[in-house]
UniProtKB/TrEMBL annotation:
Protein known as: CoA transferase
PANTHER family named in the record: SUCCINATE--HYDROXYMETHYLGLUTARATE COA-TRANSFERASE
Organism: Nocardia vinacea
Higher taxonomy: Bacteria, Bacillati, Actinomycetota, Actinomycetes, Mycobacteriales
UniProt keyword Amino-acid biosynthesis present: no
Keywords, sorted A to Z: Transferase
Keyword Transferase part of the UniProt annotation: yes
Pfam family, one: CoA_transf_3
GO molecular function: transferase activity
Transmembrane domains' residue ranges: none
Superkingdom, taxonomy of origin: Bacteria
InterPro entries in the record: CoA-transferase_III_domain (IPR050483), CoA-Trfase_fam_III (IPR003673), CoA-Trfase_III_dom3_sf (IPR044855), CoA-Trfase_III_dom_1_sf (IPR023606)
Amino acid sequence: MSRPVSGGAAGPLAGIRILEVGTMLAGPYATMMLADLGAEVTKIEPPNGEISRQVGDSYFASLNRGKRSIRLELTSPTGQRRLAELVAESHALLVNLKPSAIRRLGLTYASLRQFNERIVCVAITGFGLDGGDDPAFDYVIQAATGIAAMTGDPHGPPTLPGYSSADNSTGLTAALGLLAQIVSGRGGQVDVSLYEVMLSQLNYHASAYLNDGKQPQRRKFGAHSYYVPAQLFPTADGYLALFITHDGFWKVFAAEAGVDGFATMAERAAHRDEVLAAVTTALATDTASGWESRLRPLGIPAAAVRTLPEALAATPETIVTVGDYRLIGSPIRIAGYQPRYGPPPVLGEHDV
């Protein structure tokens, strides 16, 4: 059963007022996460609405629940006057547009501090506020940062994941930067780029190259660079994700699966091919779900590969009902607080 919309205690961000000039995913996702925690988020949209309204109602709802919507033509003097009024009574403004548009519309701290010295201005761009206007959609960033090159079968083409990892990751990072600057008590400009966020998430891969000259390798079944075995494995029916990170896990797994030898992490890394062959042979004797049911009670990190519908059916508590929509609720659980999930706003619903 899905979680209903409910009230209860005030959210940790109650009283925080955030303006959003966001499009599509990264910016709206950032502010929705903040709205789920109790912030009052006002979405500033052009007269015809933010472009993601054209994608579909459920798409828009998945990124904009619980917000207010006002229409402003920011290129007009009237729109700029209203923006100044809103900034004067807000804690933060988050925007994701091209750098030239952000500056042209006066959506930087340098332009808005005259109305509110403590306003926090967060800019989400492809390559930074000073990085130019080159188009920077999620998949483009994954290609540009090396993620696509290191994903997929080693003998096949580069591959992209089936969801917008760069946009979502950047939205979360921007929300963190926004809150950090609010907590500081100072206004200022926060600059977050999709490019740098995704490079930062390549942390240990980048460190291995920068310090040891090791380039990341694309490995079959998404195998981990350091841990062995840690990847997908075919079974008698379906695929199993197995993630053995230390010798204790290996000892328990090997006993259950009937695999001999390779007792240490160093030995398993040095004999990667032999280990993977032995594990593949062992796992072929049962189904993915069978192995999951055997290994998880032993504390071994393992899961059968499921489809999204199967995952949702297995965890109905993650689903919330918001008006006409069923959505994934906030992943942040705070004791004593249940988000007041509101419906996505009708365009211009809160115009004055």
